[in-house]
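Anyone opening a protein record will find just a pair of labelled lines. A complete record is shown below as an example:
=====
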Amino acid sequence: MALTPHQNEALLREIDDAVRQDDLLSFWQTYGRVIIAAVVLGLAAFGGWLYWQHHQTQVAEANGEQFARLMSAAQRATLDEDIYKQIMAEGGPGYRAQAELVKAAMASGRDDKKTAIATFDAILADAEAPQPAKDAALLRRTALAFDDMKPQDVIAALKPLAVPGNPWFGSAGELTAIAHLKAGQREQAGKIFNDMTNDPLVPESIKLRAGQMASMLGSATPAPESGQTAQTPAS
């Protein structure tokens, strides 16, 4: 009995579906375990990432609490050695650097210059310490050792910070300008003092001193208007 075109089309469709199912079964038998393993590994990796995120949050919170306790002790002029050691052993680079800054400040307050400078040096030598902490350590170390350093060494050490627009320009510029004065370089000192008076980031108390020094050195110029650049008069 001959099949009608409609029956023939239906038969072909059934045969095609059967072939597809057979191919799918064969594919699953061959690669099913690999697919399941990949899915399981993917879920495990995602779960591990979630755990790591949670752990990092817990660690950050614990470090923050420990540092708060360290600061609380420091306000009483005491360095809590146990907390300090725990932060240095378990804290992240940022908290370690901050703990070192607290230790150095405490040593400086006790007039223990040797310990303070050694602590600042440790921060500067730490490749993982955040740059702001290193900048603070460099500035404070230089200020502490200023009287024992040659003027050119002070100038060279603070060169990265003693530039207009740098957040540390006020303090670093002041030390650098004084070093220039000690070296007899009045023109260079006057220019730095003048630049400090025109820098919006420099604290007002430092600006006042810088303006007075710039005037004494004959280097004072008015602050530039918007879009203009201050011109330092030729000596």
Summary: The CA atoms of residues 197 and 208 lie 7 Å apart. The longest helix spans residues 5-74. The chain is about 75% helix and 0% strand. Residues 42-55, 226-235 have pLDDT under 50 and may be disordered.
